[in-house]
TrEMBL record:
Stored InterPro entries: TPM_dom
This protein's name: TPM domain-containing protein
Keyword Nucleotidyltransferase: no
Ranges of residues in domain TPM: 34-157
Signal peptide: 1-22
Keywords: Signal
Length: 240
């Protein structure tokens, strides 16, 4: 992702934040590496996931968290994901090596939210492949435990240098080539600022949808806490 894209995306996210100040979202508490707020996982699955994610963090320093929520409270899953990542501070400060696997039960949506420091390995394209080829098929069969477990395992494999087949080209260059131009980003920023001034009640939803469209353009452990990692909207979303 180029510096210009980061700048404009930061401005867009800031505008989104202004739009939703009066509509505060209630985020779940970061209680462990698995936060099953929607009660989709059984105890044994949570334990296996926690062990797997803890082992990966111990070996690499990368911090991965699985979270399920009942609903998105009117937000887009892209907006919800980047704000949750920032609130929790997943990943190490300065390394930004955190990632979230988010499942929204009522909207039937999934997102992999990737911190800045992991975007070169866990690319948008790889995140999309994990969602559409691994997680969504299991979810369509009602098997949330398998979808989440295999999805998280695939994230770890990709971060370890074993990308899934199907991605063309490499990493950041692909995202920049397929992404919006700075002019388009500036135009969207102006639209969002106009929404702020006009006070439309659905401004937050529209802003989230616009920003999500840009990103998609191409294609319980005790004592656990986030460590100040940064997020800027990298990753992918999908449904089932």
């Amino acid at each position: 992702m180029s510096a210009a894209h980061r700048l404009f995306q930061g401005l867009l996210l800031g505008a989104c934040a202004l739009l939703v100040q009066a509509q505060e979202v209630s985020f779940p508490t970061l209680s462990g590496r698995v936060v099953d707020h929607a009660d989709l996982l059984d105890t044994s699955t949570e334990a296996r996931l926690t062990q797997m994610l803890a082992a990966h963090e111990q070996a690499t320093g990368d911090q991965l968290v699985v979270v399920t929520v009942p609903d998105l409270q009117g937000r887009s899953i892209e907006e919800f994901g980047v704000e949750l990542g920032r609130r929790w501070g997943i990943g190490q400060k300065g390394k930004d090596n955190g990632a979230l696997l988010i499942v929204a039960r009522d909207e039937r949506q999934v997102r992999i939210e990737v911190g800045y420091g992991l975007e070169e390995r866990l690319t948008d394209a790889q995140s999309s492949l994990i969602i559409h080829n691994i997680i969504a098929p299991a979810f369509k069969q009602g098997d949330f435990a398998r979808g989440v477990t295999e999805g998280a395992a695939a994230m770890i494999r990709v971060l370890g240098g074993e990308p899934l087949p199907g991605e063309q080209g490499s990493g950041a260059a692909d995202r920049d080539a397929g992404g919006p131009s700075p002019g388009a980003l500036l135009l969207l920023l102006m639209v969002i600022l106009l929404l702020i001034r006009s006070g439309h009640g659905r401004g937050a939803f529209i802003a989230g949808a616009l920003l999500g469209g840009l990103r998609r353009g191409g294609g319980g452990g005790g004592g656990f806490s986030g460590r100040g990692g940064g997020f800027g909207g990298g990753g992918a979303s999908g449904g089932w």
